[in-house]
Design brief:
45% of the residues lie in helices and 20% in strands. By secondary structure, it is an alpha/beta fold. The strands form three sheets. The chain has a five-stranded mixed beta barrel with strand order 1-2-3-5-4. Strands 7-6-8-9-10 form a five-stranded parallel β-sheet. The termini are far apart.
């Protein structure tokens, strides 16, 4: 049985009663959730929105006098924290939250923390280019800091196997997200640095939300990277993801695969560079030999007029020169064959000879060429001095002459006959004469 109608309260009375209860028991409430609906009434300036989580949702209103102090405009999908009081909206027949303050939560809070850490480390100089270490072009060993079962590790290994099979790989396993992941990452970097068994270190992880990647924004990871004795390349997330670790690293790559590419010179490019250096060395050798041959030829022409006096010596000089040239060429080809053998090793899947050995042989070849050319020049200088000592012009300057008959230098009176026409060579010219008498020197015996 219902009581007398005069004793039954109206809906508005009940609603006011509910409001009083809410105001007395929930004077202030703080909660967070995702904005699923949002309306900004331009006329009044009020905001009407709904925040929710996986199990519930609450209607909210924030009046213009309060939202005018907010530095951002919320949008659907934002994760926010609100402060206010509950009220029962009588006309709508629903409970709503009258919001007095709102701020970003979740990713928004993390982003603000990101900016604070970034500013602090930037002021300390951790991002400066001057403190970053050079990346080796052809590392013998590459270290990778990441999770063992991650797609990032798989992608990096595939790319390195194709690009740089000459390099060994060492993996330093670590968690890459979750509680305490930043401690594991920093520890793995420190371990790699202390062991000093790699030439470059890759810090990689696949894509994810800012929460997933947050371990790479922690200060402890940034300081581990900067303290490392080994240069660090980061490949974290996607191209649009930039973490504190990326800013501190010696080189930032857009993805884990890009980090693998940046860590080592491509094998085919390496072979091309070696071939180019060999071609340049061969060209330099040929040019040097041509210059020495021209110089030798010019020096030899000085003594053409000496005729038979220098023929024997010139013949000996040519023999010495040919011997030096043959030894020179033989040594160069020997060194080139060694270098060619190294190139063939590079073309195999896992060469046993390192690029340092190639550089060593290339350097040795250059030194051999230089030493042989220097030896050739020294020998040429010595022979030139000997030729200059025998220069007939120097003899003629001391008052001597020589006699020619039919272009042959005569060395004895037995080669002369009365009536012959002869040519007498002086230092400043020649005289033609005819023999009218011959007087031999008496034997002293």
């Amino acid at each position: 049985m219902y009581p007398d109608s005069k004793e039954i309260p109206s809906v508005s009375v009940v609603c006011r009663f509910l409001n009083e209860i809410l105001n007395e028991t929930l004077q202030r409430v703080v909660m967070q959730g995702e904005i699923s609906e949002f309306t900004h009434y331009r006329g009044s300036g009020h905001w009407y929105f709904t925040i929710k989580d996986d199990l519930a949702q609450v209607s909210c209103v924030m009046f213009a006098r309060d939202n005018s102090r907010v530095t951002f405009t919320p949008k659907i999908g934002d994760h926010v924290a609100v402060s206010g009081r509950f009220s029962f909206y009588e006309k709508g027949g629903r409970i709503q939250c009258i919001v007095s303050a709102i701020r970003k939560a979740g990713a928004g809070m993390l982003y603000e923390q990101f900016l604070r850490i970034k500013k602090k480390l930037q002021e300390e100089g951790l991002f400066q280019e001057s403190v970053k270490r050079p990346i080796p072009r052809v590392p013998k060993t590459i270290g990778i800091v990441t999770g063992l079962q991650t797609a990032a590790l798989r992608d990096a290994l595939i790319r390195l196997q194709d690009r740089a099979p000459y390099a060994s790989i060492i993996v330093y396993p670590t968690a890459v997200q979750g509680l305490g992941a930043e401690l594991e990452i920093a520890s793995a970097i420190d371990k790699a640095s202390q062991r000093a068994e790699t030439d470059v270190l890759l810090l990689i992880r696949g894509g994810g939300s800012i929460e997933d990647l947050w371990a790479f924004n922690e200060e402890i990871v940034a300081r581990a990277i900067r303290s490392s004795h080994i240069p660090v390349i980061t490949g974290i997330g996607h191209e649009s993801d930039v973490t504190i670790a990326d800013l501190v690293a010696d080189l930032r790559a857009a993805t884990p695969t890009a980090a693998a590419e940046a860590s080592a010179m491509r094998r085919t490019d390496l072979l091309t560079e070696v071939q180019t250096q060999m071609a340049l060395l061969k060209e330099s050798f040929n040019r040097s030999m041509d210059n020495r041959l021209i110089t030798s030829d010019l020096l030899s022409r000085t003594f053409v007029s000496a005729s038979s006096l220098t023929n024997v010596f010139l013949s000996r000089h040519d023999c010495v020169f040919q011997t030096l040239q043959n030894e020179f060429v033989e040594n160069v080809y020997l060194q080139r064959n060694k270098l060619h053998g190294l190139m063939l090793n590079l073309q195999t899947k896992r060469p046993t000879i390192s690029f340092d050995q190639i550089a060593l042989y290339t350097n040795h070849l250059s030194k051999t060429v230089s030493l042989l050319v220097q030896g050739f020049e020294n020998s040429l200088t010595r022979n030139t001095v000997k030729l200059e000592v025998l220069n007939p012009n120097d003899v003629l300057k001391r008052g001597y002459t020589w006699v020619e008959y039919n272009g042959q230098v005569l060395g004895s009176l037995d080669d002369l006959n009365v009536g012959q026409y002869i040519k007498i060579q002086f230092v400043d010219g020649t005289v033609n004469a005819q023999i009218d008498s011959i007087s031999k020197k008496l034997d002293a015996s």
